[in-house]
Automatic annotation (TrEMBL):
SMART domains attached to this UniProt entry: AAA
Official protein name in the record: Iron complex transport system ATP-binding protein
Region annotation Disordered: where it falls in the sequence: 1-42
InterPro entries referenced in this protein's UniProt entry, alphabetically: AAA+_ATPase, ABC_transporter-like_ATP-bd, P-loop_NTPase
């Protein structure tokens, strides 16, 4: 787990020796990432992200991380700044916005990588050209555009756009599209038109499009999902979360969600945001306490361990 400063905010990049993260002792920080018991931890790291439009700061000095291999949930009230942060990581900011801060993506340097040594390759996403950024980070938005006449396969193919050069295609497009459809469990939907898909099916196609966008982006990429479980019934939610868990195995996955019990049950890490600021970040049980829920949401919460996760009941403070 990361350290906290006096205000309770996560102190990224200043990990305290001896603190544990998922049972592993954090020994210190390398220049390119964190060393965990000699292993190097990789993923997405947001440092001091500040986004302001004239007259208003939407995101205020936000620092948090999303390790590869884990699901990180961004939670917080309506208007907290979650979507603004995800969009900014993907390189999309409001008009006339000023943006400060850094976004780093670290991936394991494989045996065939530079010098053939173990370690991390880090790219600073906020400094790379837009097309490279699009290959390294894909965002599935809440109201992702869906042209109803397109087939799922055609929609997924659009994800390859950042890879195209002058001729409008790139080598490996077909393979990337089919692999993305398969990885998202959407192969059987390939010939269906988007306008005829259910919300859950459409969500899979959007995720497949994001995977196609990232395919071939050596050495790695991050997947951002804005409220992916919105409008899904409970069975589709579980299906989607299973898919997300699989995808998180080899990339950092960040999702926003309003259901705190779902975040506590399915995410490895929770980042609580309010008023554009990170209030706390770390393991769900450390972040989602009744006190914090009361102060951020203004409701009383009873949090209980349930056989398959965490159950939270809410009541109004004055009830
Ligand atoms: N382009 C913009 N110009 C000005 N303000 C904006 C712009 N985009 C978003 N905002 C404001 O920034 C704040 C944060 O919005 P954001 O959509 O990031 O919140 P959120 O946490 O994702 O909320 P929700 O859970 O309701 O989706 C809101 O008050 C919103 O009105």
């Amino acid at each position: 787990m990361s350290g906290r400063d006096a205000s309770g905010r996560e102190t990224l990049g200043r990990e305290v020796h001896g603190e544990t993260q998922r049972g592993l002792e954090v020994r210190g920080e390398t220049q390119r990432g964190r060393e965990v018991h000699g292993e190097t931890q990789h993923g997405l790291e947001v440092r001091g992200l500040t986004i302001a439009v004239p007259g208003r700061t939407l995101v205020d000095d936000a620092s948090w991380s999303a390790p590869t291999g884990q699901i990180t949930a961004l939670v917080g009230p309506n208007g907290a700044g979650k979507s603004t942060m995800l969009r900014a990581i993907a390189g999309v900011v409001p008009e006339r916005a000023t943006v400060r801060g850094e976004v780093h993506l670290s991936t394991a340097r494989g045996a065939t990588g530079r010098l053939g040594t173990a370690g991390l390759d880090t790219v600073r996403l906020d400094t790379v050209p837009a097309r490279e950024r699009a290959r390294r980070v894909a965002l599935v938005e809440q109201l992702a555009d869906a042209v109803p006449q397109l087939t799922a396969r055609e929609a997924v193919r659009l994800g390859r756009t950042p890879h195209h050069r002058m001729l409008g295609f790139s080598i490996g497009d077909d393979g990337a599209v089919e692999a993305a459809l398969a990885d998202a469990g959407a192969t059987t939907l390939a010939e269906r038109r988007l306008g005829a898909l259910s919300g859950g099916e459409l969500q899979r196609v959007h995720i497949a499009r994001a995977l196609a966008q990232q395919a071939g982006s050596a050495p790695g990429s991050a997947l951002l999902l804005d409220e992916p479980t919105n409008h899904l019934d409970v069975a589709w939610q579980l299906d989607l979360l299973e898919l997300v868990r699989r995808l998180a195995a080899d990339r950092p996955v960040v999702l926003t969600v309003h259901d705190l019990a779902l975040a506590a049950t399915h995410a490895d890490r929770v980042v609580l945001v309010d008023g554009g600021r990170v209030i706390a970040a770390g393991d769900a049980d450390a972040v989602l306490t009744s006190d914090r829920i009361r102060s951020v949401y203004g409701v009383e919460a009873s949090i209980d361990a349930a056989p398959d996760g965490v159950a939270i009941r809410y009541r109004r403070i004055d009830a």
